[in-house]
């Protein structure tokens, strides 16, 4: 469960009494066991209830039902259900869902979406030089400064390509002088994309940090308009790991297929029979629509270069020999067409968290939740040059590293205690690990405070929390007082049955007893003989037969009417010989009778449970009215009733 770093009293207020500070213009409709119910909460639930009813209730009708609802919630609080770990965990999870929109800067979110759309209009041809991040703060600083020196040398006249080949840690692009090729928005890490599109053509970016990949400088070679998307299909003959002779055979096969296609053969049928691309062959070779950078360069060049319905000559890629037919060139579309793909791309990088992070920082500043710069500096100084356990043992645990509302603080020892064992014991970057953990703790503290503040300021938030909180309490207390007892309290069921015996009837007789099923007649006869010659108590019947006959015997206790079970019809109701059921080919009854009406509570279990549930409910409500004080604002209810009309 998420930990909260605010005083316990505030957290209790957050989870258990989010509506305690309702605005003055939100008067109290009723008070139940000292807990006020606001007009906004009453109206919210009244309107929601009426939307779910075929015949809407009046305010007075609903007020009676609402009062009982709140009395049950009061009973749940009296039994301490609102203090259990399971309750707090469930409510905590729900609050996390409904508070999410309150923790997002929607303006920034919209800006990021529009920014992504604008970048999608163009493609950028880029090269880069990358150096690793480093495993310590000192190494990070050194590598960043080294890449900055390389950048300054290039600006002074050194060759970017030569520097990339000599220094770049990207082994795929370094041999090409750092050349990466054409980039499209949404297909590279966000910080890299941001720098690539912000840097003018012909210039070199500042050093950027793209964790966890490394530090980069980016050279923008050219910019091109986005050519749109392509729908295409292909036929593939795989050549990976084949000998020259085998490759020549594949080449002959693809050439033969090409000749058939040029003579009018059906592309779809041939692809299904001949293509060795399992992903597309069953679809007649058709691929999902794709854009620049989504296919290997040779394939992309062919697909984009053909007209609609155009057919390529056989060509080779690293995968094998292909024939491509371009089905359709598609425009990129507008923002609406691309919104989902933009959101998917954002969900894969830090843009997913940026609007939340910005909003959280604003709230932290507003509520006085902040890092303690002097304390952090002391921690960083203590861990410098060390790792893991050695580093954290050097920290003064009492050092205050963050300030919280109402005089609260977070100390270094609290942060260290929250680090997972492996990180605490072995991390080569203790300063970074400490900083990340503290950031998470401050985030949790902001969320905790937010639940209090959002409940004060927003009626919708307050009412949703109340509804869910009371719903959890109502379910648990109802289960304890009514549902569980009605289902499992055999003594109460027996009393209910005896008091209402004449009420429980059947429309036709029923078989009640045991049926023993066997895998053969000989096993069935042996079991029957055993039961006739030995006294076997009912509670040990199954064990006795299983110990003797193993899996060749099955025992079933049955209560069923004529026509519901072929075996029972044969045994008790003069039915025809029943057919075998799986391996069970023989059977016989034991300790059985035919009843015209239920003889005990178990014979009418569902009906008895329903009656007992109603009885328990009635008694419970009667006791609730005696136990808890209710004060109703009749004048306000009258005003609400008039407003309803």
Mind telling me the C-alpha Rg? 37 Å
Oligomeric state: single chain
Unreliable sequence segments: 6-13
Q: Helix- and strand-based class?
A: alpha+beta
The helix tally amounts to: 26
Shape: extended
Summarize the main sheet.
4 strands, antiparallel
- DSSP strand (E) fraction? 15-25%
N-end to C-end Cα span: 47 Å
Task: Kindly state the number of beta strands.
Answer: 16
Helix content: 40-55%
* Biggest sheet strand line-up: 4-3-6-5
Q: How would you state the average pLDDT, rounded?
A: 92
How would you explain this protein's 3D organization?
The strands form five sheets. The chain has a four-stranded antiparallel β-sheet with strand order 4-3-6-5, with helices on both faces. The protein starts with 7 loop residues before the first helix and ends with a helix. The radius of gyration is 37 Å and the shape is extended. It is built from 26 helices and 16 strands. The longest helix has 30 residues, at 459-488. It has 645 residues and is of the alpha+beta class. Helix 14 (354-367) crosses helix 19 and helix 21 crosses helix 25 (605-627).
């Amino acid at each position: 469960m998420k930990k909260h770093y605010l005083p316990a009293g505030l957290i209790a207020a957050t989870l258990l009494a989010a509506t305690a500070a309702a605005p003055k213009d939100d008067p109290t409709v009723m008070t139940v066991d000292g807990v006020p119910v606001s007009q906004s909460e009453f109206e919210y639930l009244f309107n929601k209830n009426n939307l779910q009813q075929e015949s809407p209730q009046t305010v007075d009708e609903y007020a009676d039902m609402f009062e009982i609802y709140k009395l049950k919630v009061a009973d749940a609080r009296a039994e301490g259900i609102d203090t259990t770990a399971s309750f707090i965990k469930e409510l905590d999870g729900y609050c996390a869902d409904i508070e999410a929109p309150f923790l997002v800067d929607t303006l920034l979110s919209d800006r990021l979406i529009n920014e992504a759309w604008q970048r999608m209009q163009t493609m950028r041809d880029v090269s880069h030089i990358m150096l690793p991040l480093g495993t310590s703060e000192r190494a990070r600083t050194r590598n960043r400064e080294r890449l900055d020196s390389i950048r300054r040398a290039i600006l002074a006249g050194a060759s970017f390509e030569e520097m990339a080949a000599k220094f770049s840690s990207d082994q795929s692009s370094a041999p090409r002088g750092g050349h990466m090729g054409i980039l499209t928005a949404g297909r590279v890490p966000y910080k890299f994309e941001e720098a690539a599109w912000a840097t003018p053509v012909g210039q070199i970016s500042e050093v950027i940090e793209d964790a966890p990949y490394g530090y980069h400088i980016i050279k923008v070679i050219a910019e091109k308009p986005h050519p749109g998307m392509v729908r295409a299909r292909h036929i593939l003959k795989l050549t990976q790991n084949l000998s020259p002779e085998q490759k020549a055979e594949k080449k002959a096969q693809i050439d033969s297929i090409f000749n058939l296609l040029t003579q009018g053969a059906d592309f779809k049928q041939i692809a299904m029979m001949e293509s060795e691309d399992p992903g597309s062959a069953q679809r007649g070779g058709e691929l999902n629509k794709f854009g620049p950078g989504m296919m290997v360069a040779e394939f992309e060049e062919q697909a984009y270069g053909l007209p609609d319905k155009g057919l390529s000559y056989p060509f080779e890629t690293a995968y094998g020999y292909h024939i491509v037919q371009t089905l359709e060139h598609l425009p990129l579309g507008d923002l609406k067409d691309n919104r989902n793909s933009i959101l998917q791309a954002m969900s894969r990088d830090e843009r997913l968290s940026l609007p939340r992070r910005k909003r959280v920082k604003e709230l932290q500043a507003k509520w006085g939740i902040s890092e303690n710069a002097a304390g952090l500096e002391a921690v960083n100084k203590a861990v410098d040059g060390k790792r893991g356990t050695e580093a954290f043992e050097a920290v003064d645990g009492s050092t205050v590293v963050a300030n919280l509302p109402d005089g609260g603080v977070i100390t270094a020892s609290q942060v260290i205690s929250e680090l997972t064992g492996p990180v605490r014991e072995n991390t080569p970057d203790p300063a970074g690990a400490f900083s990340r953990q503290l950031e998470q703790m401050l985030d949790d503290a902001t969320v905790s405070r937010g639940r209090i503040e959002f409940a004060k300021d927003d009626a919708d938030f307050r009412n949703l929390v109340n509804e869910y909180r009371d719903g959890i309490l109502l379910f648990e207390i109802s289960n304890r007082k009514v549902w569980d007892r009605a289902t499992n309290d055999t003594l109460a069921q027996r009393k209910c049955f005896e008091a209402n015996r004449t009420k429980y009837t059947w429309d036709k007789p029923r078989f009640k007893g045991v049926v023993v099923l066997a895998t053969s007649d000989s096993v069935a006869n042996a079991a029957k003989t055993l039961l006739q010659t030995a006294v076997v108590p009912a509670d040990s019947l199954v064990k006795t037969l299983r110990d003797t006959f193993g899996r060749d015997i099955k025992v079933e206790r049955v209560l069923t009417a004529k026509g519901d079970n072929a075996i029972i019809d044969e045994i008790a109701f003069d039915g025809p010989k029943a057919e075998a059921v799986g391996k069970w080919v023989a059977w016989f009854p034991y300790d059985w009778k035919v009843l015209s009406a239920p003889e005990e509570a178990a014979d009418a279990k569902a009906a008895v449970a329903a009656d007992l549930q109603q009885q328990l409910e009635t008694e419970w409500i009667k006791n609730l009215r005696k136990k808890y004080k209710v004060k109703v604002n009749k004048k306000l209810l009258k005003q609400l009733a008039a407003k309803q009309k």
